[in-house]
Every structure is written in structure tokens, then in C-alpha cells.
Amino acid sequence: MAATVLERWLAWLEGVHPRGIDLGLERITEVARRLELQSDPTPIITVAGTNGKGSTVACLESILQAAGHRPGAFTSPHLLRYNERIRIDGKPVDDADIVAAFEAIDRARGSITLTYFEFSTLAAVWCFRAAGAHPWVLEVGLGGRLDASNCLDPEVAVITAIDLDHMEWLGDTREAIAGEKLGIARPHRPIICSDPQPPQRIAERAAALPAPLHQLGRDYGYASGDGDWSWHDDHRHYAHLPRPEWMGDAALANAAGAVAALTRGLPSLGVDAASVARGLAKARLIGRQSRAPGPGGGWLLDVGHNPSAIELLARRLAVHREHGRVRMAFGLMARKPLRVLIERLAPVVDEWYALSLDDPQSHSAEAIERALADVGAVVIGRGDAAGARQQLEQRAAGSDLAVAAGSFRVVEAFMQAGVVPCNAGGSSRD
Fold first, then answer.
1. Phi, psi of 94 (to 5 degrees)
2. Where does the Mur ligase C-terminal domain start and stop, copy by copy (predicted)?
């Protein structure tokens, strides 16, 4: 089948810059200036952090829609289609809009080279401006201070939970990583921090800017109820808020941060308790502990790939094992700590399938199987997602749960193999 125009553009973007990751703002800032993207008065909410960015954006996007706004949301990576990265009013933009953005960026850049992600960031903002989206919600791709999204000035900076990830780029301590993430903040503009145990660097940097810091547990908070939850600050109390199925207890901190960003950070948007409730009821997220139908207890898909995300998954699986067995198909990118993550999951997984991902930058199925053998795990197979699906579904009985986890590439592979999350019609990220 012949490649579409968008597919040809994306293939070209893969090699247009000599490095896939080239942190720095000089090149993209100049192109944004030429496109006059920085002069647009639309308010921007930028979301940075290690874990919880996607769920925060999903909540922001849905609540804004419920409040009568038409938000633009930029996230990454995508699972099945590039268009998932750029959404307006909750819907992925069309190929033609993205191609028009790429063409405009290519004309404006002249001799300046841009990475794939830099092109994507500018394309998102170009599409938002062209469509009159309001406000814009940008998810940071890597870090914050030098991330492509930081070529624009946010009205509100949201910092989610900080963990050790991308240490080769951001530093090897939570304090150092927090400093990089907080690079998205601007003087005198609100910072919303939803990390329940924030590194001290966040408060220090906020004071130095200076910028008002709204900290979870100090300036606003939440409480989990029986099937619902509540949010509060010094002036408001929103009770009996709905909780989407994908929103576990830990994700409530992200939802609380989203509510704080809209009520405390941008009160001019007029988001009230009713809008919050309606938005949360419709919020969708694919890839973070997403349920999918299947034999036995069905499937659970999770893109989590760092220690904190794996810890959250392990807690959920521990609860499930009170009702049925857990079988996991596991794949991981090579730069992630294979043994550390497997050791955390091993006590809550009964049987494993070592996944082979179609990506040279992933751990091989053989390496995964060796790591599993080292911890005494029971391995029932090795191969691709289609083979894993067949084996795990054949063995399912009663309330047994089949899990596919470890990477965005894992969830992508299983969706292509026909394991479709129950909420796949909505926003497709975390």
C-alpha cells in the first residue's frame, strides 16, 4: 500500500536532524518566532514531571471541554497514529492539517534543522492557532528546561511526580531532575505541584523566580471515597467527584493537580465544580492500567516503564491476586533497568511471557527471559504480541488477569494484535 502524504513527511522527519534528541531552545525558538507562534495571546498550561503527565493532561482536556472551552492538547508518544499527539476539542487533527503545519514550518526554518519532536511541537501549536483552540495544554517530552515545548511561555506550569528517569539527560537525583522540570516555570506565574513528596528544589526554585507555588497537601488536597473522591482548598470543597475506571488512588494526585491548575492557576477560565465533575466523568486515557476484554478476567495494558510506575502496577496486581492468577507479557526498552523492574513485579506475577518488540532499542526476549530465570520466575513463552495473546488467553480461567506491560511499544503491539482497551474511543495517552 502506498504511503500517505503524512507518512512520507514523518519518514522524512526521522532523518532531517542528525540527532534524535538535541536538547536546547535556540533553533526551535527562532523558528517559532518566524511563525509568530510566540505572540499568540492564548493561555498555555505546560505539564512536566516523570509520572502522571498524561493523566493530568487527560483530566485538563476533558474538564476544559465540560466548561465550554475548545482546548488544544499536545502529548507524546502516540500508540497507533501520529495524529493522536495533536488534539483539538478532544479529537485528533486530520492528516491535512498536520501536513499544512509541516509545510509552513519547513518554509519558515530555512537552513535551521529541527528534530522530529521539535517539528511535532511546532506543528501542534500551529494547528491550535489555525483552529482557534483555547487554551493550549502542552505535555513536556523530556525534562522541561530545554524541552521543545519550553519555547513558549506558559500561563501555568504543572509539575507532577518526580522520579529517576532519563538520568543521562536530566541528572541522577530527584533534586537535579526537579530542577530541570521546573525550567518550564515563569516569574510571577502559578506553579502547581502535584508530587505528594516534592523535592526541596521545587520550593527553592519557585521562591527564586519568584513564582507562586501551589503545593499538594499544603495549598490544596484530595480525599479518596468509596468509588468517588473529593477535592478541596481554602475556599472550595468539591465532593463526590466521579473517578474514571483507569484512575487508581495514586492517579488522584494528578487529577487533583489538574483541578488546581484550572481553579487556582487560571480562574479566568470559569471552571466550577459542575464542570470538574462532568469533565472527570468523561475523561479517557489509553495505556495506563487500561482494561480490555478477553477470556477470564480480561486484559490490563500499562505503558509504565520506570520504578514508580511499575510500583503502582505491582500494587494493583497484588490486589487482583486475591481473586485470580496474573500472567504478564513483558517488554522493555534497553535503556531501562530490566532487573530492577522485574524484581518488583516478580512477587505479584504468576507466569511470564518474554516479549520480542520490533525495535532495535529494546531488550531482547532472550535477555528478558534470562532476567526472569535469575529471579526464579515461571516463563511460559517467548515471542511477539500475537503469540503472547494466544498463550495467555488459552490459559485464562475464572478471574485470571492477562497483563501487557513495560513500554508504550508493548501497548502499541497488543492493540495492533487486537487487544483493544475499553475506552479506546477517547484520548489515547498517559
1. -75, 160
2. 299-408
Rounded average pLDDT per 10-residue block, the chain, 430 residues: 87 75 83 95 95 93 98 92 96 97 97 93 98 97 81 97 68 81 95 96 95 98 92 96 82 95 97 97 85 92 83 90 95 90 95 93 94 95 96 94 93 92 50
Q: Which residue in 296, 15, 334, 21 sits closest to 147, CA to CA?
A: 21
The pLDDT of residue 56 is: 96
Predicted TM-score (pTM) of the model is 0.85
Assess contact for 329 and 404: CB atoms under 8 A. Answer: yes
Listed residue (306, 300, 301, 354) closest to 331, CA to CA: 354
Strands 290-292 and 237-242: unpaired
Contacts of 140 (CB under 8 A, 6+ apart): 46, 47, 48, 49, 53, 147, 149, 150, 181, 184
| Cis previous bond, 187, omega within 30 | no
